[in-house]
């Protein structure tokens, strides 16, 4: 765990700003009318709440926060998604667009979210009243997307736990074709000569995954999803219990190539999920979040590169043994790589039992790191132990559908549509809200108040123009280039795509709905309503040091 059990350190939730500009006029909305009054300082930043009513815990050590951020960013996708996409888009040549997307898109937005969370010291939903109230729907969309991701992500961790428990045997159950679940198509080519691999051949690892773990042969697809796998239900319950107690005490315990490159770096680093906002909100005000962003991003990218080297070595060896192409070895780009390809390679290593235990323990810890962090935005607003339980209950009931014999089909559907375009659109609107409405000057001044220096021209250009443009291109590519869904050579029905788009829209729709709600219920003329809805609800004017002499305008 990256969290500590030491006594919490508390301080006011949102500090004032430092530095002054010349006198200027401030429009303040008060008691249903617009008032104009002089104020001092730069574009006003949100005022803090009463420092005595809502104290906020702090990370006990800097390393706790940094490891938590890295633990969220480095997840199972680094192990399976990056190597596959890299191979699919030209291997080493893919690293060029990937690096450029990271430099001009992923890292600047990673830095922006850490700075926002650290300065405003609140969660993904309440933070918007301090930035641009009309965009508060982004916070709700983030929580819904987080739930969708947790549905299938916890299921994948449950699969890994099943493998982990199955590894405690003298002979790994996926090492041979002599098991009750194997079929005549099972072909074990390791250590044998004169074995011909055909299109109908299946490795012992593949049949263990599909016919033993999932029992997918008893399902006819989304139309006939089958019965529940009680062993996986037990594994999910254990994972759910671990996640609950990790969150219980909060912070104290615990071209298409370019489109693919952009999607991979945004999904991997995780801006837009609200996790970085939540984790950074527990930092000390003057923590160097700029350095944290660079370190965490570098570790994330290096981990992806290392995973790529390892997986290409394994896939190349297996393709040579089968006398087939690499893409025929890894036919599915999803979790199958974790539960078929890797186990098959491990089963033929010396000391296979030991390495299987270590590998799946790594999978479980990687998954738990990300899923605990991913639940932070939903728990942070509650801020209490009692607030954790309802969130956890809502995250464990729907996944029961994913534990049926055809649950892998639902996992694939959620993986493709649960986040996908929705999270890219959320990040795009978040960037626009901060850079264009909250104001790049105001945001830069916030960063200066924390770190002592203003972000350079490169970061400002990325926040205002380059990153939004990259996100818009990525969204267009995701929508217009959506191949038919297939899993284990099963073609999804046509209606499944419509269901997938509805899943994606169900989170994003929160944003325009809240905009309409905010405009309708705000008093005044339309011009006054717009003026109120796009400005922070509370403003500061007297820049001081942290925790000293805060003077709110209202």
TrEMBL record:
Pro residues: bias regions: 40-52
- Disulfide links within the chain: 177-186
What GO biological process terms does the UniProt entry carry, in alphabetical order?
Answer: amino acid transport
Residues annotated as transmembrane: 65-83, 95-116, 137-164, 228-247, 259-282, 294-317, 337-364, 417-440, 461-479, 499-520
State where Na(+) binds.
71, 73-74, 78, 268, 300, 366, 369-370
Please tell me whether the keyword Transmembrane helix is annotated for this protein.
yes
Q: Which cellular components does GO assign to this protein?
A: neuron projection; plasma membrane; presynapse
Q: Which residues form a coiled coil?
A: none
| Membrane-protein topology | Multi-pass membrane protein
State the Gene Ontology terms under molecular function: metal ion binding; serotonin binding; serotonin:sodium:chloride symporter activity
Which UniProt keywords are given for this protein, alphabetically ordered?
A: Disulfide bond, Membrane, Metal-binding, Sodium, Symport, Transmembrane, Transmembrane helix, Transport
Q: Does the keyword Transferase apply?
A: no
Do you know which Pfam families this protein is assigned to? SNF
* Region entry Disordered, spans: 1-56
Checking InterPro entries in the record gives:
Na/ntran_symport, SNS_sf
Cellular compartment(s)? Membrane
Q: Which PROSITE patterns match?
A: NA_NEUROTRAN_SYMP_1, NA_NEUROTRAN_SYMP_2, NA_NEUROTRAN_SYMP_3
Q: What is stated as this protein's family in its record? A: Belongs to the sodium:neurotransmitter symporter (SNF) (TC 2.A.22) family.
Protein name per its UniProtKB record? Transporter
